[in-house]
Design goal:
- The protein is an all-alpha fold.
- The chain has eight helices and no strands.
- It has helices spanning about 5-20, 25-35, 50-75, 85-100, 105-115, 120-140, 155-175, 185-195.
Length: about 200
């Protein structure tokens, strides 16, 4: 699928910000990476400033995340009656890991540059991270095995979701797997802990 010029600018700018840092990336470099004549002002036909490109990238990632979360929940909901609980938990964990990995460039920008833009930190927090935690709460509450369980699902989502986020962020910031634990091993342990921390599932009638 062919990307529009605006999409190319956003994608290439985010890549350069992740590689070099926001301040070290010039508008001309973004233009060149986007297939525009560097220094000719082509970026300004779509954005008012370099900051506006960064803000657009983060806001579009947030919008995409909300859509992806809704789609993932719909897919997982369709698995309920056909797949056992541990397999559903595994699918949930892997979906979270995939989403966090997809945002690797944004993660690098976040840790390197976003402290100077608190309004964009808020977009990441409320538009990317919080929807993932909310989705875990929604998912658990929808499972028939736990329909009568009165648990702190918000706290549980913070523990289980936080583990998923940390696994990928550790890779991005340290450059290695936490504890040298491979993904499949992590997923297996995550599922085991998730099942063990919760009460015995109620029988499904």
């Amino acid at each position: 699928m062919t990307r529009s010029t605006r999409e190319r600018i956003i994608d290439e700018a985010l890549r350069l910000f992740a590689e070099r840092g926001y301040s070290a990336t010039s508008v001309a470099e973004i233009e060149a990476a986007s297939g525009l004549s560097p220094g000719a002002g082509g970026l300004y036909r779509h954005f008012k400033s370099k900051y506006e490109v960064l803000a657009a990238a983060i806001n579009e990632h947030a919008s995409r995340t909300r859509l992806q979360v809704a789609e993932s929940l719909a897919e997982l909901s369709g698995m309920e009656s056909a797949v056992d609980l541990e397999d559903r938990l595994s699918h949930l964990c892997r979906a979270g890991l995939a989403k966090v990995r997809e945002e690797s460039e944004l993660t690098r920008v976040f840790f390197r540059d976003l402290s100077q833009f608190p309004e964009l930190v808020a977009v990441v927090r409320e538009g990317l991270l919080q929807p993932m935690f909310d989705a875990i709460v929604t998912w658990f509450q929808a499972q028939p095995e736990y329909r009568d369980a009165e648990l702190d699902w918000t706290g549980i989502s913070a523990v289980l979701g936080g583990a998923v986020v940390h696994y990928r962020l550790f890779q991005e910031t340290v450059g290695d797997l936490p504890g040298h634990v491979a993904k499949d091993q992590f997923v297996t342990a995550w599922v085991r802990l998730a099942v063990g921390l919760l009460p015995s599932p109620a029988p499904v009638s």
